[in-house]
Amino acid sequence: MRYLKGKKIGIIGLGNMGRAILNGLVSSGAVGRTSVIGFDNDPAKCADVRKKYSILISKSILELVTHCDSVIFAVKPQNINEVLKEASFYGKDRLHISIAAGITTRRIEKALGGKPRVVRVMPNTPALVGEGISALCKGRYASRSDLKTADEIFSSVGEVVELNERYFDLVTALSGSGPAYFFYLKEALIEAAVRLGMDRKTAKRLVLKTALGSARLLLESGHEPGLLRQHVTSKGGTTERAIAVFEKAKIKETVARAVRAAVRRSKELSRG
What we know:
Elements: E1 9-12, H1 16-27, E2 36-39, H2 43-53, E3 56-57, H3 61-67, E4 70-73, H4 80-87, E5 95-98, H5 105-112, E6 117-122, E7 132-138, H6 144-155, E8 158-162, H7 168-176, H8 178-195, H9 200-221, H10 225-232, H11 238-248, H12 251-270
Parallel strand pairs: 1-2, 1-4, 2-3, 4-5, 5-6, 7-8
Antiparallel strand pairs: 6-7
Helix pairs in contact: 7-12, 8-9
């Protein structure tokens, strides 16, 4: 971890994603426990993280920013303005990494004032189990080295792709919100099986193992999803009958509308 060596990393927000990043950094060996400082407004979260990870917990955002080379804003979009206001007092020469959905680098730069180094990241919740994928882009004043630093941080919780910021509303709608779409489908399949008489435990096991195996097959085969779907869909068979119901219900069009709705919401968040 060339770019993280000797660096202090601060994490503001110790909810699910903040903890996922912390866990990835520490468990992967990317940094030592003494190199990470955390802060959250919730004392219970701070106490729990201190007990589990034995890292230093700051008393305030200002204190954290003062002692860190890189600061990760792992907070909800609606809380970002307040956090940036506090960070701006002593954060001009730090690297600022934000995972707040819909919040642009320009908006962060303006809130911090001057020429702050900003990297925007859109991770997703599979980071909690080390299987996330994060999109990165840098602001006007961040360097390639800053981008590499963020890359090393988020590589500890999964894969990383670099994209132009103009795609970030779509990334938010696709991979950021995407896990919920898959969970929704699995939820629907399990409920359908239960309504048809199967016990929930067995239905869940069948559905989740099918999902895991299908994802692995898709990744390892290198084939397009459509081709693999065709391999399962025999002429006149059960799968063909099920797909026909999906087609009649225009599921693909519904998915496209859902993604567009999520993109619109991301744009709304960016405007504050």
